Amino acid sequence: MTSINVKLLYHYVITNLFNLCFFPLTAIVAGKAYRLTIDDLHHLYYSYLQHNLITIAPLFAFTVFGSVLYIATRPKPVYLVEYSCYLPPTHCRSSISKVMDIFYQVRKADPSRNGTCDDSSWLDFLRKIQERSGLGDETHGPEGLLQVPPRKTFAAAREETEQVIIGALENLFKNTNVNPKDIGILVVNSSMFNPTPSLSAMVVNTFKLRSNVRSFNLGGMGCSAGVIAIDLAKDLLHVHKNTYALVVSTENITYNIYAGDNRSMMVSNCLFRVGGAAILLSNKPRDRRRSKYELVHTVRTHTGADDKSFRCVQQGDDENGKTGVSLSKDITDVAGRTVKKNIATLGPLILPLSEKLLFFVTFMGKKLFKDKIKHYYVPDFKLAIDHFCIHAGGKAVIDVLEKNLGLAPIDVEASRSTLHRFGNTSSSSIWYELAYIEAKGRMKKGNKVWQIALGSGFKCNSAVWVALNNVKASTNSPWEHCIDRYPVKIDSDSGKSETRVQNGRS
């Protein structure tokens, strides 16, 4: 406890060092100025200012010009006006047992099996993965796969994605009262399902966006594509003034469920569920008052130049010609290394001076005394960040980042709860997590939230936002009817969940 108090005192002194020095100096200067007389001012003017007017005038003009140039050329703020997470209908809820039945029906419907599916080893493997995944019994599956026999067709896949995107956008437009024709920039990301016409064209057609909208469709970029889409929209908003940018993040389950026997490809079936999010960004100054957040930083890290990183998550055919996404055994090491590189870039941008100084001292100490100092100092990101939204890619992903960043259970509560309630919804999971924090009433004015997304390639992307007000949950939030039941305690041995009491309610 003493060491914690000493560190907090050190952090306070270093962070407020300028103020601690500035106010005494101001008091001294004010005291001196108070004693000045009219004769002293005349003497100062005639003895110094009048004889150095040629020097002072250009300096003053240069200062004014530099200030005007900075104000005119600095990037305009990007505001998050509102966002909406899609909540599938209740008839699409898929318990673990129901998901196992979907797997069975999909394999049985495979023409190569001639209507038989009697190998139980794969079922036992999937059941173990499901029970240890951190997913609960209220996640959602696509309607096409819930039918018997399941519809694993292109038409069913299109229906799934259109339902998610249109559902999220209708709720977003309803909550913001923004006319779709006011949208100037559109970015849609879906990694595994990219039909022709594109999904961005489908949005334009459905909501009748204007003909000069700048639309983009991002494919094949994995679960981190949501932050990539935000970063792209941010850059476009810095160029195109006084407009709205619409970002849509989703993934498709129907067309990409794997029906083969390769275990490295079967794991993804256990984690991914239906979900999507729509985000409305603005660079209009008048939107600041009604916006929830302002975008502070985006940092993107790509380690795809390394072969091991490039191949750790890869779509391809198995030995029987069935398409799936394989996860290599190197994925944990690759993810850890990529996250460290991303943090090394983001850290200097957000960490307070006290943490930067401690890291620099240990860095130099390790260079000079390699044998005595074994590890670099791990900065305390909780001094800079109030809330964390770690991509709900799986229980192992959350565990690793919780340990490496030195986070407490409450810091990863949103991620674990999202994984349990909605599963891995790919690029949209970080928005379900942000909605969870808002639903709990924890987002206060000035709070900073860090969204961390991981994806194939291999990529780690971060977005940092600052709350402009005390943020309340949006209308029709995905957590509206179940927030009181979270967080839940997961029994790692049995896979069962137990609801904790929150605020006197269960």
Automatic annotation (TrEMBL):
GO BP term, pick one: fatty acid biosynthetic process
Gene3D superfamilies noted in UniProt: 3.40.47.10
EC number(s) on file: 2.3.1.-
Reaction(s) the record says it catalyses: a very-long-chain acyl-CoA + malonyl-CoA + H(+) = a very-long-chain 3-oxoacyl-CoA + CO2 + CoA
Transmembrane segments: 12-31, 52-72
Principal subcellular localization: membrane
Start and end residues of each Beta-ketoacyl-[acyl-carrier-protein] synthase III C-terminal domain: 385-465
Any one cellular-component term (Gene Ontology): membrane
Protein name: 3-ketoacyl-CoA synthase
Annotated organism of origin: Brassica napus
